[in-house]
Amino acid sequence: MRKRLMPAEVFPPGEFIRDELKERGWSQGDLARIIGRPLQVVNQIIKGKKRITPETAVELAAAFGTSPDAWLNLETAYQLSQVGPPDPQIAKRARMVG
Fold it and tell me: Which of 79, 76, 82, 71 is nearest to 17 (CA)?
């Protein structure tokens, strides 16, 4: 069984967005207007209350000049960091079946 390697520290993607906004001198409202989303959605993403969807990843990539994959990878890494290890019985049961 392969062990899942996790970075020492994982941040919600919203923290990266917050940093990017600061670097560019943009407000959350500016980003909301740029990507055509309500301010509340942008705020929820930044606070880590709303996940980055593939559609949002495409929009963020266009706004920041990055790739959609970068945003989805940040989201996935964060979500995986929030999940505990799997039940060891799952692997045991799989070995018994296979």
Answer: 71
Spelled out in words, what is the top-level CATH class assigned to the domain 13-81? mainly alpha
What's the pTM value of the predicted model, to 2 decimals?
A: 0.83
Residue spans of the domains in the chain: they are: 13-81
Q: How many CB atoms lie within 10 A of CB 31?
A: 23
The candidate with the shortest Cα–Cα distance to 57, out of 46, 73, 43, is 73
Higher per-residue pLDDT: 4 or 74:
74
